[in-house]
Amino acid sequence: VQVQTVALLLSRVTWAQNPRKRLAPPKTPKAQCCDEVRSLKVQVANLTSILEELGRKQESDLMNVVRQIMELDQQNRQQEARVTEAESKYSEINNRVEIMQLQTLQSATQTSSDATYDCASLFTKSYKISGEYKLPKDEFLGTPELSVFCDMETNGGGWTVIQRRKIGLTSFHRDWKQYKSGFGSIRGDFWLGNDHIFRLTRQPSVLRIELEDWEGETRYAEYGFFTVSNELNSYKLFLANYSGNAGDSLRYHNNTNFSTINKDNDKCVDHCASLRKGGYWYNCCTDSNLNGVFYRYGEHTKSTDGITWYGWHGPNYSLKRVEMKVRPVGFQP
Ligand SMILES: [Ca+2]
Predict the structure, then answer these.
(1) How many angstroms does the Cα of residue 39 sit away from the middle of ligand 1?
(2) What is the pTM of this model?
């Protein structure tokens, strides 16, 4: 701006001189002309120095403003970080309190009656061969006879299988009611049913997830604490104490409600059950999707709605085989 202004002023000086030179030869003495020029030059110099001073002042004002903005921005960021930290601490404490409340509730409601309603109790009654069993009708719990598949071998046995994917002909893109009561074939692919999983996990339970990829490699994830709320509480998932070699990809789903194609209970603007084509404890949306679409070898890396476990193969690899199973925390083989 300064340079332009000076140039403009100088050009005016030149322009003012030119007509005199060209059109009418100067009648005034040379000295007068030079005086005018000199006085103009002095004016230009004065203006230039004023402009320079203004420029400097503006620059330092600007610097001050920028510095203040930067300081505010930093303070803002520090405050945001503090809020985030406080929020995460609060959520962690809240989670622990909920787990403790559940554990208290569980030990209070435990009776000899529900102690027989799983594969672990069959195991202690000397049924030690893996396979399909019928759990008797339970008057106390008001539960019907239930077919279950018991894994009596893995890591000491006593596991009630609650989910399996291995054949791929059964769709898992089902509605709330079907996930509530269960579907599929107990020897093939199935979901045991949210009501049954809720009943099984009223006693402190361990969840074990076994995974197999298309190269035949296997991994597992175990949660030392696992429970599912009742239907009124949307079968909300609580879990803790991960161990294993598959990665902790159910942790992201902790503290979330169950969602299906016709019930969006997730923590997302999106409808995760629709996007991921399953029923699951969707957050926003997944770090695992064990009830997703079964894709065969060759097709298994082309979609994000497959049977995924991000901690092992990421979001674009649909696994070949999955089993989810539970047994009581204090189980002794
Ligand atoms: Ca949603």
Answers:
(1) 77
(2) 0.68
